[in-house]
Specification:
This protein has 743 residues and is an alpha/beta fold. The chain has 29 helices and 25 strands.
Length: 743
């Protein structure tokens, strides 16, 4: 027969002492926590309401106790703290354990004691809050549903609630006074005053017996050494855009974070916050204006991130086995790309470019402090109705850290940083914009062409230097904006005008275009076969709610995110052997642009060379550097470290092919043939130029295939070229198809 505990404190003590993590283990979960708190190994007592619900189901008369705790959470947090104080075990000193300054101070206060005046009721005991070295937090149970910011009403005041939101402003961590120690300047009497709420009125006269006999009495001064301060941080949380009803604006809530929960949130994080919904009455002059209307806030108890960054993703052995299984499949690169937004028809190369954007290149920091970015910027420009915005939305949901905005609804200040006034101290502070919130993530900007020119120039520094320099309102600083920019825009005339030049259609300054690694032009070209296939795909998605079969099972978003996270751990570099090849290809691109004249389809600068390197490094990351399929993962890992994870020639050729394919839609719609040579002659000249840059006169067949594909030609055209020029005795072919030039 269990004892009938009538007081709430006795019930809390009974739960903390008897709850175990499973009948077989018999391990006392909360007793172990108290031992760690006593031995200075932890500073929080986390009461899991799921444990409380499980415990109360087995005891008669305790069934409604979890609901009572949730409905009056702040009171029961203090009751659990008092219960923990009563059953706190004694500290076990180790060999290296030493008392800190607070322990020494408390021991001195216990030895000296406090003078008591018989006529004035002054407590000789130190407050329990002053001695307490932990805070009580409630973790949400199974019966607490995750809500939106808008659904939290006045009826929830005092209740424990869980909601989802986006952190828009995170304040600095500051000390918050919890227990004030006041000392008399005449008699040295000390009095401790517990602070409840945001404001308190300190005692101004000494209540000791010695000072009461004097005239005038001594004054009390705050002694910070004996007072208790805790870490305090204020966070502004806004409801997600998908939770906002039609015609409304997003609502926000102020969240007060104390103790060990500080510094757990950053601007831009999507989090589930569990806390106590409390009122905050106005005081002072503000109370005259507001009257009985009170502000509300959330006192945070638990924080759970919905999306974790790539570096925070923890993968088990089973996860690595699944990733290795995906990596062993044929055409892994193509399957990963097709798994991005499979509901969208076509755009195979565009999805490959977006996959490389997710993976990114390697950020280099030179010895002299110069930083070369590794993030890849992509701009999708095309006709209306080619699913540009849908691709941006999907990348936003796929990336662990991302911000979505539109050109018309964004200003230069909204993208970079703005000056705000701190609600607590009244100081001038900086609030980061979309690019700063997307630090170490992706910033998707839709309707990029609709932005004002003055606002668009604000992102020039972000795209190359990846910083935001601020010199406003007496604040001079530099904010980090290490983000990849994915922009979508329409041509200058709404639709691409074939009669006009590419520069007139794109209508973006060269300084901005050169900062994009890939400027992808997508044209809506009419064709009976392609239109029928597109219509059948769309109808199948609307009817079945899923895309048609791709010939394989698309990789889930969580697994794709984990694959990219593991790929980003590699740091491949470009070997010296490929330097001449990359340099010759870059020079060829520049020469082709000069030959095209006004019909050139882009601006090729030295940044294009860095774009080739970034795309090649991203491809090397996707294949986990020099992955060899016939050896074990452990042996491959050792080999990859020894080989320093090099970029291969195939990676460079694929990067060049993507740059070529980004403008291929323009060539398909061109009325005349702008090429100086026929395809066979063009392939011959490309092979000859590549061979001239090599120390040997022999060209392997696989090298020729990779070179031809990077130029946008087919393997059939290559074979016709090989046979034609072999018949002219320009080169000799061996049995494997390798080419040997005749001297």
């Amino acid at each position: 027969m269990l004892p009938d505990y009538k007081s709430d404190k006795e019930r809390c003590i009974f739960f903390l002492k008897t709850y175990s993590c499973g009948a077989e283990s018999g391990r006392r979960k909360y007793e172990d926590m108290l031992v760690d708190i006593s031995n200075r190994k932890r500073e929080s007592l986390e009461i899991d309401l799921a444990d409380l619900e499980e415990f109360c189901l087995t005891i008669e008369g305790y069934e409604n106790f979890p609901e009572i705790v949730q409905s009056n959470a702040r009171r029961y947090a203090s009751i659990f703290a008092e219960a923990a104080d009563d059953i706190m075990p004694r500290r076990i000193f180790g060999i290296s354990d030493e008392d800190d300054s607070f322990d020494v101070l408390m021991r001195q206060r216990d030895q000296i004691g406090v003078e008591i005046n018989e006529n004035i009721n002054v407590s000789p005991e130190l407050p329990d809050v002053l001695r307490r070295r932990f805070r009580v937090y409630f973790k949400p149970g199974t019966k607490i549903a995750v809500r939106t910011v808008r659904s939290i009403r006045a009826a929830d005041i005092g209740h424990l609630v869980t909601f989802t939101g986006v952190c828009t402003r995170v304040g600095d961590v500051k000390p918050l006074l919890e227990v004030a120690c006041l000392t008399c300047d005449c008699c040295g009497f000390e009095i401790y005053q517990e602070v409840i709420g945001d404001n308190f009125n300190p005692i101004n006269r000494c209540p000791s017996g010695a000072c009461s006999l004097r005239a005038p009495t001594g004054e009390l001064f705050l002694e910070t050494r004996a007072s208790k301060f805790i870490k305090f941080q204020e966070v502004k949380v806004q409801e997600r855009s998908e939770d906002v009803p039609v015609g409304h604006i997003p609502r926000s809530l102020t969240v007060q974070v104390k103790g060990g929960l500080t510094r757990t949130m950053r601007p831009g994080d999507v989090v589930d916050i569990t806390g106590i919904f409390l009122p905050k009455p106005s005081t002072g002059f503000k109370a005259r204006q507001t009257g009985l209307v009170a502000d509300t806030y959330i006192e945070a108890m638990a924080v759970k991130h919905q999306k974790t960054g790539y570096s925070d993703i923890l993968m088990s052995a089973d996860d690595m086995t699944n990733l290795w299984h995906h990596h062993q499949q044929q055409d892994m690169y193509g399957k990963l790309a097709q798994s991005i937004a499979p509901e969208i028809y076509g755009h195979a190369d565009v999805k490959k470019a977006l996959l490389l954007l997710l993976c990114g290149g390697v950020t280099r920091e030179l010895r002299d402090g110069i930083r070369i970015r590794g993030d890849i910027h992509v701009c999708l420009m095309g006709d209306p109705g080619v699913a540009k915005s849908q691709l941006l939305k999907h990348i936003t949901t796929l990336a662990p850290r991302s911000v979505y905005t539109t050109g018309r609804g964004s200003s230069g200040v909204g993208l970079t940083a703005s000056i705000q006034r701190d609600t607590i101290t009244g100081e001038t502070i900086l609030e980061g914009g979309a690019l700063v919130l997307a630090d170490h993530g992706i910033c998707c900007i839709d309707e990029f062409d609709k932005m004002e020119e003055s606002d668009r120039t604000a992102i020039h520094e972000v795209m190359e230097q990846q910083t935001v320099s601020i010199a406003k309102a007496g604040i001079t600083t530099t904010l980090n904006a290490r983000t990849a920019v994915l922009a979508a825009a329409n041509p200058a005339y709404g639709r691409y005008n074939i009669a006009a030049s590419p520069q007139e259609n794109i209508n973006l300054p060269a300084a901005l275009l050169s900062r994009f690694d890939l400027m992808w032009l997508i044209l809506d070209v009419a064709g009976s076969e392609s239109d029928v296939a597109l219509a059948q795909h769309v109808l199948h998605v609307h009817k079945e709610g899923k895309p048609p079969g791709l010939g394989f099972e698309p990789i889930a978003s969580s697994q794709l995110r984990a694959y990219v996270a593991h790929a980003r751990t590699f740091s491949p570099h470009v070997p010296v052997e490929l330097s001449n090849y990359i340099a010759s290809e870059y020079a060829g691109i520049r020469q082709d642009e000069i030959d095209a004249g006004e019909k050139a389809m882009g601006y090729t600068t030295a940044r294009t060379l860095l774009s080739i390197l970034r795309l090649s490094e991203a491809l090397a990351r996707l294949r986990w550097a020099d992955q060899v399929h016939s050896i074990s993962p452990l042996l491959h890992y050792l080999i990859s470290i020894y080989q320093l994870q090099q970029v291969s020639e195939g990676d460079v050729n694929e990067a060049l092919r993507l740059i070529k394919m980004s403008k291929i839609s323009l060539e398909d719609t061109a009325g005349d043939d702008t090429s100086k040579f026929d395809p066979i002659t063009a392939i011959y000249m490309a092979i000859r130029d590549w061979a001239d840059a090599q120390p040997t006169s022999e060209v392997r067949y696989d090298q020729a295939v990779a070179l031809v594909i990077s130029k946008g030609y087919t393997v059939e055209t290559l074979r016709a070229c090989l046979e034609e020029y072999a018949s002219l005795d320009v080169w000799v072919l061996d049995d494997d198809g390798n080419i040997l030039f005749v001297e």
